[in-house]
């Protein structure tokens, strides 16, 4: 009897000292933190240089908690397929991921961000909602205004230059289509712009552009510093 009791006690002690590994998959976390804290209009900028140079993987999740993509070092896993983020065809990766801007050669990965929970940013990739850990210091949220304020960009027919900040104002088209503009003033969902001073110097050309519409960024032709 004493031997049996001793064996039982040993088994209990062993099971307590060797607990089952915790499931680190965030499916339950996503499910329990699905209540949006607030809707936010902006972008998430990933520090791709830090991510690919770090042994700690970064994952973007589907709403059910499964991994949409995982970046570990220079390897990016999309579903069951692995790619070298630095050597694979850039257009192929762009099509596979569907981020707003993705230029892995230049360490650029930027997605739209429409809302957040207590633990996750809810981002838009390829027209679908995905989740990413908001407490990971390798990514940063910017409002559309903060993101665009120090950028230069080109305009197009879908995002025209207007005399006044409204959609019925006359369109200004007296400039070359490759002209780079910069922000000089914010007014609600509109920005007043002028040609990039560093490229063109002082200019009398000025007008208004819609920055966002229905919580979507309208300016897409951003000049990134490569």
SSE topology:
Elements: H1 2-17, H2 27-32, E1 38-47, H3 48-52, E2 58-61, E3 67-72, E4 75-78, E5 81-84, H4 90-97, E6 101-103, E7 108-116, E8 120-125, E9 128-133, E10 139-143, H5 144-148, E11 152-154, E12 161-162, E13 171-172, E14 181-187, E15 190-195, H6 197-200, E16 207-210, E17 212-213, E18 216-217, E19 221-223
Antiparallel strand pairs: 1-7, 1-10, 2-3, 3-4, 4-5, 6-7, 7-8, 8-9, 11-14, 11-19, 12-13, 14-15, 15-16, 17-18
Report how far the terminal alpha carbons are from each other.
77 Å
Largest sheet: 6 strands, antiparallel
Estimate nothing, just give the exact number of structural domains: 2
Radius of gyration computed on alpha carbons: 24 Å
Q: Any low-confidence stretches, pLDDT <50, length ≥5?
A: 5-24
Q: Which shape, going by the Cα principal axes?
A: globular
What would the average pLDDT be, to the nearest integer?
86
Structural class: alpha+beta
Instruction: Estimate percent helicity.
Output: 10-25%
Number of strands: 19
Beta fraction of the residues? 35-45%
Number of helices: 6
| Secondary-structure element series | HHEHEEEEHEEEEEHEEEEEHEEEE
């Amino acid at each position: 009897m004493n031997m049996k009791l001793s064996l039982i006690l040993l088994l209990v002690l062993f099971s307590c000292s060797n607990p089952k590994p915790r499931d680190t998959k965030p499916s339950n976390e996503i499910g329990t933190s699905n209540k949006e804290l607030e809707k936010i209009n902006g972008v998430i900028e990933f520090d791709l240089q830090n991510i690919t140079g770090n042994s700690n993987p970064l994952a973007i999740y589907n709403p059910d908690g499964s991994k949409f993509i995982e970046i570990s070092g220079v390897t990016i896993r999309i579903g069951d397929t692995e790619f070298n983020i630095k050597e694979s065809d850039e257009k192929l990766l762009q099509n596979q991921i569907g981020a707003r801007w993705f230029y892995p050669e230049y360490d650029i990965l930027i997605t739209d961000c429409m809302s957040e929970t207590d633990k996750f940013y809810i981002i838009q990739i390829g027209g679908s909602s995905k989740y990413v850990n908001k407490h990971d210091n390798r990514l940063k949220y910017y409002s559309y205004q903060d993101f665009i304020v120090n950028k230069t960009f080109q305009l197009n027919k879908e995002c025209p230059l207007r005399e006044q900040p409204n959609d019925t104002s006359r369109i200004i088209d007296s400039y070359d289509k490759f002209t780079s503009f910069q922000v000089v003033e914010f007014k609600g969902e509109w920005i007043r712009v002028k040609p990039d001073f560093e490229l063109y110097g002082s200019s009398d050309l000025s007008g208004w552009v819609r920055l966002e519409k229905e919580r979507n960024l309208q300016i897409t032709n951003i000049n990134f510093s490569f």
